[in-house]
Design brief:
The complex is a heterodimer of chains A (252) and B (249). Chain A has helices spanning 3-26, 37-46, 48-82, 84-99, 102-113, 117-141, 145-153, 158-195, 201-210, 214-241. Chain A has 252 residues and is an all-alpha fold. Mean pLDDT of chain A is 88; it is low at 247-252. Chain B contains 7 helices and 9 strands; from the N terminus they run E-E-E-H-E-E-H-H-H-E-H-E-H-E-E-H. The longest helix of chain B is centred in the C-terminal third of the chain and has 20 residues, at 227-246. Classes of the chains: A mainly alpha (252), B alpha/beta (249). At the A-B interface, helix 7 and helix 8 of A face strand 5 and helix 2 of B.
Chain lengths: 252, 249
């Protein structure tokens, strides 16, 4: 985004917020329906310790879920790649798992795992693993055989091929999966907290909603959005840190 | 003891309609330090022959030996086309050849840099493959292959996909450095002149399934314009065309 684009985007955001603020104030819209942006900002500042406490809960569930999801995603990709028959047998179940509405299963998870971090992490992991598996598998398969043949002629086994060729080839694919999966995992953790929790931004939103504290609900949404953007940006930075990979690696 | 020995090798691929023969009872030997150029009509099975010699494709019958051992792990096979790792610098690519055997050490880095300098890429050790020309990438691929220090090198059109001028330049250069590279080399090409310039011997293959049609020892002066060179070139070309007609498929 160039400087001029940034300026235009900033101006548009200001215009939108200004319109919102003016609309709420001039239209006398009650704060339990729609809080003014300044009220949201004030809630963010005033209730920051509370928000931070709950954000910590969400982040913990998200982190554990992401870790489990990434681990499961990588393991499934590896198994599907190296054990073709197992991979073919698993494929329909992997796809099927994404068709199950996780949000509908969430109450069940709460019933099984209680109000702690586990059900949220489970929801987040279920959402995360799939894009990781699919992308990493694509990455592992992206290597042209000629590239491997040089190393095979020198006597490289599968382990060496994985370390020298396949894993680095799959790295950018993994990060694409992580970007999609990570962003979804944050939503997943929040949904898990809606269903049943004692801590977390999702829980805070439900509670604030019941108390008609719309300013706090919006502040929580703002915080979640910021976390999501930060996550996305973090993965993008990781991608930039990787060496360039222009040129042909996959099938031309 | 020959560096590389193929005895009555037949190879091919299974297809839905049965066996697809590509190489037919072919024998060849390669002495230590010798360069053998293999020419043949396009699609005749030259690449398959190299893959068999590298131990990447088991022959259907016959044997492949590198100093009396199975070939896998004892040869450096340079496949056709761009096979450098795009995420590694030229130096990193050359070092990758050592990583198959062990963790590269500081001495390896210095040595790999030396090899790149030797291949005329001293200024580009830190460049990525996409940042250098096609000719440089070919040279880097060659550097990587020879850096693996194997007993036998199998090169599949090592100078293919280059413009004629760069190609001739690299041919002359290869002839100049071959003593220092060491090891026996079998290289496949579809360019007869290249075969005569680079090889000590030229093996002519028939159309698929590949059989040996003729073999010539290049004992003439490697001057493209000399009468002896031109005469030998004519012989190889006529052997090629007779082999093309003889081919079964």
């Amino acid at each position: 985004m160039g400087g001029r684009d940034r300026l235009a985007a900033g101006a548009f955001a200001l215009l939108l917020l200004g319109g919102w603020e003016a609309g709420v104030r001039l239209g006398n819209i009650p704060p339990y329906l729609l809080p003014a942006p300044t009220a949201v900002l004030w809630a963010l500042v005033r209730d920051f310790p509370l928000l931070a406490h709950h954000a910590g809960g969400t982040l913990a569930a998200f982190g554990v879920g992401l870790g489990l999801g990434v681990g499961a995603g990588l393991a499934l990709a590896g198994v599907s790649f190296y054990l073709r028959p197992v991979g073919r047998a698993l494929a329909p179940f992997l796809v099927g798992s994404q068709m199950v509405p996780v949000f509908a299963v969430a109450p069940l998870l709460v019933l099984w795992f209680g109000y702690g971090i586990l059900p949220k992490a489970a929801v987040a992991a279920t959402i995360t693993f799939f894009p990781v598996t699919v992308n990493v598998l694509d990455g592992l398969r992206s290597v042209r055989p000629e590239i491997l043949e040089f190393f095979q002629s020198l006597g490289a086994g599968e382990g060496k091929l994985l370390r020298i060729v396949r894993a680095p080839a799959a790295a950018p694919f993994f990060l694409s999966g992580l970007r999609v999966g990570g962003t979804l995992a944050l939503v997943g953790a929040t949904i898990g907290e809606w269903v049943g929790a004692s801590r977390g931004l999702g829980y805070l939103m439900i509670r604030a909603n019941a108390q008609l504290r719309m300013d706090l609900v919006f502040a929580a949404i703002l915080l979640l959005t910021a976390l999501g953007v930060a996550l996305f940006g973090g993965v993008t930075l990781l991608e930039r840190a990787l060496p360039p990979r222009r040129g042909r690696l996959g099938t031309p | 003891m020959p560096a590389l020995e193929l005895k009555d090798v037949s190879a091919g691929y299974p297809t839905r309609n049965g066996w697809f023969p590509v190489v037919d009872t072919l024998s060849l030997t390669l002495s230590r330090g010798e360069w053998l150029a293999v020419v043949g009509p396009s699609g005749c099975g030259k690449t398959t022959l190299l893959r068999v010699a590298a131990g990447l494709l088991p022959p259907r019958s016959g044997t492949v030996r590198v100093e009396e051992d199975p070939p896998r792990g004892r040869v450096g096979f340079m496949p056709h086309g761009d096979t450098l790792l795009p995420w590694r610098t030229l130096l990193g690519n050359v070092l990758a050849a050592v990583e198959v055997d062990r963790k590269p050490m500081e001495a390896d880095r210095a040595q790999a840099t030396g090899v790149l300098v030797h291949f005329g890429l001293g200024a580009f050790t830190r460049a990525y493959p996409h940042e250098v020309s096609a000719g440089m990438r070919q040279r880097a691929s060659l550097a990587r292959t020879f850096f693996a220090s194997r007993r036998v090198y199998l090169l599949d059109e090592p100078l293919g996909a280059l413009d004629p001028l760069t190609r001739i330049e690299l041919q002359e250069w290869l002839v100049g450095v071959r003593e220092e590279l060491g090891g026996a080399v079998a290289l496949v090409t579809h360019d007869v002149e290249e075969a005569l310039v680079v090889g000590d011997r030229v093996l002519v293959l028939s159309a698929r399934p590949a059989q040996a049609v003729a073999e010539y020892r290049v004992e003439v002066e490697k001057d493209r314009l000399s009468p002896a060179f031109t005469a030998l070139r004519g012989k190889v070309l006529s052997a090629l065309s007779s082999g093309r007609n003889r081919g079964g498929a």
